[in-house]
Amino acid sequence: MALRAAILRHVRVPLQASPKLQPWNGSIRSMSSHDDHLTKEEVVDRVLSVVKDFPKVDPSKVTPEVHFQKDLGLDSLDNVEIVMALEEEFKLEIPDKEADKIDSCHLAIEYISNHPMAG
Amino acid sequence: MGGTKVQRLSGMQKQVLSLYRGFLRVARSKSEEERRNIESVVNQEFRRNSKEVDRKNFQYIEYLLRRGNKQLDQLRNPGTIGLSSLQIDFLKIN
């Protein structure tokens, strides 16, 4: 035990800051009531405004049904950027597997409005 | 990549997009200035390669993926402030 204490006193393990771990977020959210969950209308509005703000997008073409690549002329890299912008807007982290599927406003709205943590 | 015709993504395309996403994610953890810098360099790199690299040149794409993932790991280290330290690497290889 003395040896262990002696070692522990001298060994310094560097702290790894992990941006993914935000314990406070979770506990703050757990205190919020269900009533303040986003309404579908709010999700639609905010998704559309994120897409309209994307530099390469013609805002007049953006509707809740629009497909990013087929209708807006974006490519798969733009698609990644839009989904990342949506993550920031709704304070989510969307796993790769899901993110790869989100290729239209419609799917983005579906995914976000069904996500319990979307804020 | 992509274009107006939408195909299902190949495994390799998914790896490329996942790497791109990884860079954009790690950029968020840096200072505002460094974040913009990382985003712009990474964006240019990926766009340039998506135009210049033959999509059937799997060996080269695999090499780029390996290189990119290594750079991403370096950036994930909180001690790495931004791309400025890795930039030399970018320039040297290209």
TrEMBL record, chain A:
Pfam families: PP-binding. PROSITE patterns: CARRIER. GO terms for cellular component: mitochondrion. Pathway: Lipid metabolism; fatty acid biosynthesis. GO terms for molecular function: acyl binding; acyl carrier activity. It is found in: Mitochondrion. Keywords: Electron transport, Fatty acid biosynthesis, Fatty acid metabolism, Lipid biosynthesis, Lipid metabolism, Mitochondrion, Phosphopantetheine, Phosphoprotein, Respiratory chain, Transit peptide, Transport. Residues 41-116 form the Carrier domain. Its main location: mitochondrion. Gene3D superfamilies: ACP-like. NCBIfam families: acyl_carrier, PRK00982.1-2. PANTHER family: ACYL CARRIER PROTEIN, ACYL CARRIER PROTEIN, MITOCHONDRIAL. HAMAP family: Acyl_carrier. Belongs to the acyl carrier protein (ACP) family. Carrier of the growing fatty acid chain in fatty acid biosynthesis. May be involved in the synthesis of short and medium chain fatty acids. Accessory and non-catalytic subunit of the mitochondrial membrane respiratory chain NADH dehydrogenase (Complex I), which functions in the transfer of electrons from NADH to the respiratory chain. This is Acyl carrier protein. It comes from Trifolium pratense.
Automatic annotation (TrEMBL), chain B:
It comes from the Eukaryota. This is Uncharacterized protein. It comes from Trifolium pratense (Red clover). The lineage of its organism: Eukaryota, Viridiplantae, Streptophyta, Embryophyta, Tracheophyta.
